Amino acid sequence: MKKSLLFMALFVAFSVATIAQTTVWSDDFEAYTVPVNLTTEGYDVWEGTVNAVDAAANGITAVSGANVAKCNPGSTLNIYLRKTIELQGGKQYTYSASTMQAEGKKHFIQVVVDGTTLKAEGTNTSWQSKSITFTPSVTQNVVLTTYMYFKEVTMYVDDMKLTLDTPTSIKDAETINLTVAPNPSNGIFRITASETLSAVEVYNTAGQLVKNQTVANADDLTLDMSAYSRGLYVLKLSSVSGDHYTKKVMLK
Description:
The chain is mostly beta strands and about 250 residues long. It is about 5% helix and about 60% strand. A hairpin with a 6-residue loop joins strand 13 and strand 14 (about 190-205).
């Protein structure tokens, strides 16, 4: 019952407003002539080395492009890759990055703001996007970090991004004849709409973004959620005209 009430509150919130994200800073490591030590590119690295490298040369595939950040600890148990950016107080931001660690060691992304450390952790052995949403109380330097504390293993990072999040209005999905079927589904949803779509975001009952799929300007697409846990989700669909729509779905 409690979970159902939480989902209903989440859906009501989505029906009133959604979030438009404007990129403040990003790095997919494609701008560098690799390999390059990222301490020469505006990053702070603590207790180890972090280089922008060619992904294929290191036996992996990048999330996007050809390059990734390769993080190796030093003689101690820590490796930090840090970016410090001055952000305005009272505004909402989201820091995200894709990370992986082949041996399944725990690793994090972190935000240090208002003297508090916020974390999103994982033990994923393949690429997984992690995100942290926060609002600085006053204008200040905020530290964005990827972090691991194991020796003799490597962590990879790609597609680091900081966005400014601002509320935008959202429209009823019925206004564009939007359908999602089958619903409930075992994992594969087909989405059709009378308006051209540009992106699909999936949120869980806690309001966390769990999937973000860019669409190649289509009005008929497939959303694969077979790797996700059973339960209720909210889809936020964006159109090429800048409008946003929501739809509830059930994964069984």
